[in-house]
Amino acid sequence: MAWTTRSSRTVYENRWIRVHEDEVTGPDGEGIYGVVQMQQPAVFVIALDDRERVCLVELERYTTGRSLEVPAGGSDGEDPLVAAQRELHEETGVTAARWEHLGRMNALNGIAVAPEHVFLARDLRITDAAVSQREEGIEAVRWVPFADALDLVADGTISDGETIAALAFAGIRLHRFR
């Protein structure tokens, strides 16, 4: 049985998200569903240098604490590739000559409308210290061999779901699983 939305009302909104409460009819009958909707798609970048190392950023998240993640952010209404290029440079001071769209995914699809795009960036050049690192809350940029990044997923050091999924996209594309 398909879901039917009988009514919807916005209960909160800012420039990044909108939260709405929907009266629905679903498989179990009538109910209420809370939905978080991202205002713009997000982008995630697997930046791989010529030594096959992945660029990761360390930061402190308000919601979950310390986190090790791939460079990422909101598209702010831009084309996703343009946003990915901007985010990589802002967070790491790195630019890339080659870009490949690896795929699209949805975060928290049980409660959210949060489309995301994953990109592979290659032929990297470090241009300068990242201008926006402090604003973004980034404490460090780390370069980790791809296989070691997978080990960091396995041991729980990398726990960000989107980073894990982005690494999976890259592993599939590059045929590297260890």
From TrEMBL:
InterPro entries listed in its UniProt record: NUDIX_hydrolase-like_dom_sf, NUDIX_hydrolase_dom
Transmembrane domains' residue ranges: none
Molecular function as annotated in GO: hydrolase activity
Keywords: Hydrolase
Gene3D superfamilies per record: Nucleoside Triphosphate Pyrophosphohydrolase
A matching Pfam family: NUDIX
Keyword presence, Hydrolase: yes
Segments forming domain Nudix hydrolase: 38-166
Obligatory cofactor(s): Mg(2+)
Tagged with keyword Cytoplasm: no
Name recorded for this polypeptide: NUDIX hydrolase
Source organism: Microbacterium mcarthurae
Lineage: Bacteria, Bacillati, Actinomycetota, Actinomycetes, Micrococcales
